[in-house]
């Protein structure tokens, strides 16, 4: 996602002064090589993987409520991004909006690498002890 957002930002930066994007046909490379109908199911893959991650990190006594709060927060943030993207493109120009999204992607990768503990091969009790600081 970092690469695609950066590529869109570079594309819009390069085509900024031209009257229309159609004059730069060579820059409009296909972003995805997957069939069109396969992309419909890919959005639900992210929702499913998020729910799997949430189910793994919360203890049993708060798992239901915590999962609900996380899913609600996810959908609220998706609504906020969808609603404010056009005004963000006006303020930052299209290339700035895509580069900002790329920066957030880089930040999330770094956060995951340095702050999210590895839980592979650990029991729920070991994971709970890690988060409780024992």
Structure explained in plain terms:
- It is a single chain.
- The chain has 134 residues and is mainly α.
- 71% of the residues lie in helices and 0% in strands.
- The protein is elongated.
- The mean pLDDT is 80.
**Rg, Å, rounded:** 20 Å
Helix content: over 70%
Figure out the total of helices: 4
Backbone structural class: mainly alpha
| Integer average pLDDT | 80
In short:
Keywords: Membrane, Sugar transport, Transmembrane, Transmembrane helix, Transport. This protein is an all-alpha fold. The chain is 71% helix and 0% strand.
Give descriptors for this structure.
mainly alpha, 0% strand
Strands, helices and their partners?
Blueprint: H1 2-14, H2 38-57, H3 63-115, H4 124-132
